[in-house]
Amino acid sequence: MKHKWIFALSWGLLVGTATAEMVGFWNFDGGSTANSISGHTDLVGGGTYFLENDIFTAAGGYLSGGSNAANLPTGTSPYTVSVFLNTTTTTNCDLVSWGNNTYSNSTGFRLDNDGVNIREYWWGIDFTANTTVTPANSGTWNHIVIGSEGNNQLVFLNGQRIGTNTPSSTHNQRNESFYIGSRHAPSANLTGSMDDVSIYNTCLLHSEIIDLSASRYNNLVGWWNTADVSDNTNIVDRVGGISKTTAELQNLSVDSSKQTLLYNGATQAASTEFRLFDRVLTASEKTYYQGQMASGHSYTLQTGDGPLSTATGTTTWVQNGTATFDSSVTTSPLGLYVGGNTDSSVVNMNTSKINAANMMLVLAGGTLNLVGDTTTSSFTAISVNFTRTLNIDGGSFEVQAKNNYGSGTDSTLAYLNLQGGSRVTVSSGSATTGYMRIGDNGTGEANFVLNGGTVNSTQIHVGDHSANSTVGVLTVNGGTLTLSGELVIGQNAATGYFYMNGGTVESGNLSVGRNASSGTLTQTGGIVNASTLTVGHSGTDKQGAGTVLLNTLNVGSQDHAAENTVNLSGAVVVNQGTLTVDTLNIHTSSVNVRDTLQVHKLTGATTSNLQFTSLGANPNQSTLAMINALATGDAPTYSGNFAFTPAVLQIGVDENELTTFTIDGDYTQSANTTLEININALDNTWDKLFVTEGNTLNFAGTLDLILGDAGESLYAFQLFDGTIASTFSQILVNGAAASDRWNFSGLNAGGNGIVTFNNTPEPSSWILLLLALAGAYRRRRFC
């Protein structure tokens, strides 16, 4: 890659071109410790370490090699060392080093004594950079880089240059005693995980370091540059360490529906740089990256206060001071960087300029404020339409508007609408907005991705008000999303997708598929907390098509308050976690439980059809828990047919809770199921799975009756009322203090459906027990 740099850096003026040759890359894929550049495999492990999931994880472990590990920089040669690190250590540990323990003869870097700061290590000529924004031991993946240009020491964290130093003595490094996760003796061994360790015999440009760091959140999976090698036969990509020849790159083909391949020539055969993204880039991203890879692309550094300095075709980089980007700036940059230096910087951008740059990147130390037009007193920011790309990695982004709705203040938050083709990524740092729409009108797909950091908003609608097939996608991989209002996935003829893979989401009402729209929530990890869940339902005239695939969703505070409600007409699948709700309203669809569903109250319409199924290898692990600590009159009522297939249905799970689960319809329980009832002694009141008269009870599974305190006078459970044709499989009685005091006669066809246990034995109990009951657990079949 060749960039023209036309700004003065703190360590001197950099003008011209730079070529980098990669001399070492270790990605540990497949458990290998081979150098992807040289192919050397002579690294030897020590201490406790693991090579699994294609990363290097150690608990006081390390890898070591001699002078053959790589063609390491020596003497005063420049270098760059790049690693991805995940650790929570609170002691010093070394990451990469080579040389010996003689004054100035060592090269490497380590975490300082508390594990927080980063020290570039020259053995007696050391420089420690403070990680004030993100501690190096934060327990998340951080990108850490050290470099040397001349006799200058440079340290970077997640794309931000956090320190520079020019020692008085000259560096004289040696190609020997190479270590990953330790140094020399060895000592100060690694505790944590490392991946993608790379070494260059030149000092990479700051923009290249940013691109390396950004690969973890922008899906850059391959970056080949022929300048990295001298013979063009073993070009190793800077991101993943995958080797390609020039011929292979010139003929590289990808699936354009899932990936994007960019190159810097008119054709692949005429290109020297290739970038492969594991997703389809937006139009603005393609424009930005193609311009960045072009030989004439330049970076214009702005320092100090004043209007934004721009030049057509350049990326403007505001590294300190406060810049104003408003209507007075007549030209627009291809890209806008804010922050990334040791100083703080602020850009106040007018709402009319939000789409001026194809790519906006806010790094640590940078703040991007989207503000209303301060020259117009009547400005009303009902919506700000965004169609470009914004990446927040360590800095902060805030949407403000003057006189929002004509009556607010300068700090009132405006609406931010992400329309087709837009993409916002928050990897660290923060974003604050008012009402945000993701996929609002326009065409194409709008994305909001949270990998880390924090996002605060009043409410978010994903897929909203679309007449042109706009798709909105919200993806949470980490971090925290906090909403003071609602989160809606799919609304008003739009399509919304919410992928919850990690992190935490806190919201009020969570609606999936509302007002005749299609919404899908897929959760594979993380925690979602909401006061209300509504799936595919918004009144009787606007049914949606919502689908929820859950891991763990908490609805309400679980204090049995009526406002903590789940309204369903779409489908809910609990995959490998728990859906816990207070009130469940079933309307037209089904709930498929593959793990645990806890319901404190159940109501529904006559057209309902509730199904509980398990599709896993062990179907008996699925559990539906019906819980109710309210008065009898507020007990769960369900109108409609109830189909119950392999799983466990629990009634009255918590001891001393009264539960009545009324089904005004047919109840069907298949084989390999268990109906588990907590029977409580409450003065002639009892738990009930109440199937009303005139309906059919088909029971082919197991009834497991669990007693509480056997010293009480009466236990009872009622399964139906009146004459019902019924068939039962087996009954388990668990916890009976006296095995001869059960009366099952009420379960016979034509009986009252009541099972009782008394402290005083009855003759009928003796007869039934002789037929079937024997021991603490009893089984009986009825026909």
Give structural attributes.
5% helix; globular; 45% strand; disordered C terminus; mainly beta
Describe the overall structure.
By secondary structure, the protein is mainly beta. Helix content is 5%, strand content 45%. It has four helices and 64 strands. The protein has a 33-stranded parallel β-sheet that branches. Strands 4, 5, 6, 7, 8, 9, 10, 11, 12, 13, 14, 15, 16 and 17 form a 14-stranded antiparallel β-sheet that branches. Strand 2 and strand 3 form a beta hairpin. Mean pLDDT is 78; it is low at 1-18, 374-381, 402-411, 557-563, 615-620, 629-634 and 761-783.
Low-pLDDT sequence parts: 1-18, 374-381, 402-411, 557-563, 615-620, 629-634, 761-783
Main sheet characteristics = 33 strands, parallel
How many helices? The count is 4
Mean pLDDT: 78
**What is the general shape?**
globular
In percent, how much strand structure appears in the residues?
Answer: over 45%
Percent helix range? under 10%
The total of beta strands comes to 64
Helices and strands: which structural class?
A: mainly beta
For the termini, the CA-CA separation is 81 Å
- Please compute the radius of gyration using only Cα atoms: 32 Å
